[in-house]
Amino acid sequence: MDEGNTWAGRIFVGAVELSVIGVMVHALVNSVGGTEPFGVFNRIYFSSYDMHRFTVLVIFTSFMVHWFKTQYLYPLARFVTCSSITVFYIYFHHLLWTINSIIFRGSGAWRLPVLGTLFSGLILYQLDSKHGFFKIFSNKNDQTIMSLWLVLQIGGLAGMAYTGFWDAMILSDAGLGSDPNVNLFWLVWKFSSFWMLYNVLRSSSLRAPLRMHPEAF
Known about the structure:
Elements: H1 7-29, E1 43-46, E2 49-52, H2 53-69, H3 75-105, H4 111-131, H5 140-162, H6 165-173, H7 184-192
Antiparallel strand pairs: 1-2
């Protein structure tokens, strides 16, 4: 056993990584539908709840990439941090969707995405105050890439609107149309929603010992 590591820490990290890989394998082999290209719009079922295959793969790939970049955090703090970043992405992503829904079809449930974005942002602020995983002074390149992800999100939404996404959504909600998300601009928007903070995460060659240090917050 490496110095400072414990079996509890090893098991926890292994369980997190195997769980994420298991979900991604499930998304790759157990999808429902025959959409093109490559079945990215297929549905994945988790009991009675379903998601698009592409959504599942993007969310969990993003989690794993952020997970490996923050290995300088103790496993529990690392898990809470990466989960909080993922939740922030989900709610901010939903907030942009809601704003566009209100603009283009006059309706959208805005309270949950607003509260979720604010609350997850507050959690990240609290975690960063303790663990310092965000760069204090990000360079111009990091800021440019962060802005680029945001521009891609907005561009994807604009492309969705231009290609009739919201009209298709109205028909789908009325039971008169197919899945409106089968749209290449939707892929751009979805993918770009889960990387915006990556470049402002601190990098380090240090690796925290794999032990269940209790101070996550």
